[in-house]
Amino acid sequence: MGASAIHCAEDARRLARRRLPWMVFDYIDGSAGRETGAVRSRAALDAVTLRPRILKDVSQKSLATEVFGAPAGRPFGIAPMGMCNLSRPGADLMLARLAAQYSVPHGVSTVASTPLEKIIETANGHAWFQLYFSGDGVGTFKLVERAKAAGYTTLVLTVDVPEVGRRPRELRHGFTMPFRIGPSQFIDFALHPQWSLATLFAGKPQMANFEMDGFEFDRTATRANVTWDTLAQLRDAWPGKLVVKGVLDVEDATQLVSAGVDAIQVSSHGARQLESAPAPIDMLVKIRAELGSNFPIFYDSGIRSGEDVLKALSLGADFTFVGRVLQYAIAAAGEAGLERMWEVLSEELSNAMAQTGMTTTSSRG
């Protein structure tokens, strides 16, 4: 079964689960704790309703929008995701080519498995660099300078990881970064030969952005020393657009505006950090109400369909980002699967717009 079997996100997830080793699938799919946060987030999105309208001329619709004044072919982009090449060799560049084709931002993770320079080149400039601050910050600011030199003009600082969330599904498999193979992993891989042979041929995925002098990365190291002063230093050092990702509190959002960031991204890290965090879609409404209509607010976490995209837009997001479902699709059927999943999201959004009498995504409200 290939890309033609993908008709919704759950189809892609089911196919990915069948193809991937358990350790890799659970790394992509898992959430914090008992995963009640993910359930709560999904329930909150499901509870949002859209307003059906009738007898509207929706024969000519556009899914295009703008982000920071630049045209984008869709109101959803690619969320930063670590070690994407675990889903299938070359996944990072598949995503980059998609970003180039639709002129949407590709969030390039600090822990991407392809160098940040190669990704922005392949994305034809449609790439934002996502930054984790770690250690004493020396290596972090080296990455900032490296992103600047590579041509990145938007930096996304992720602030909801003072420590990596506890994800029991990962812990049970002994998942680590850098990627290590022990006896249990070997058995897991042997039971999934298609993935294992392709990965063996391509080479073990690495955290490519750390292959530079003077920078070692420990995923489990504390990042708890990041403060508002750190943000101020980063603001001074970065001349381009600065987005802060992982915001779920109204007070934090207002302080970020005062700190001079260019946009905030409402996100629970896909429910992978704090199990008891509020549903991001609920906080989007509150943060938008506090900040008013003009300040840019982006949204990610839990988006599984084009209708979810429209829900987030209708509740105040200026732009949205999709993550896991794209990795499911790549794992399921490679680049053809990714392109099919993107088409599905686009078709679902277009259909929802028609049902609600909308011809552009900017006509929300």
UniProtKB/TrEMBL annotation:
Cofactor(s) listed: FMN
InterPro entries recorded: Aldolase_TIM (IPR013785), Alpha-hydoxy_acid_DH_FMN (IPR012133), FMN-dep_DH (IPR000262), FMN_HAD (IPR037396)
Lineage: superkingdom: Bacteria
Record: residues binding glyoxylate: 27, 132, 167, 269, 272
Cellular component, GO, one term: plasma membrane
One GO term (biological process): aerobic respiration
Gene3D superfamilies the UniProt entry points to: Aldolase class I
EC nos: 1.1.99.31
Active site: 269
Protein name, entry field: (S)-mandelate dehydrogenase
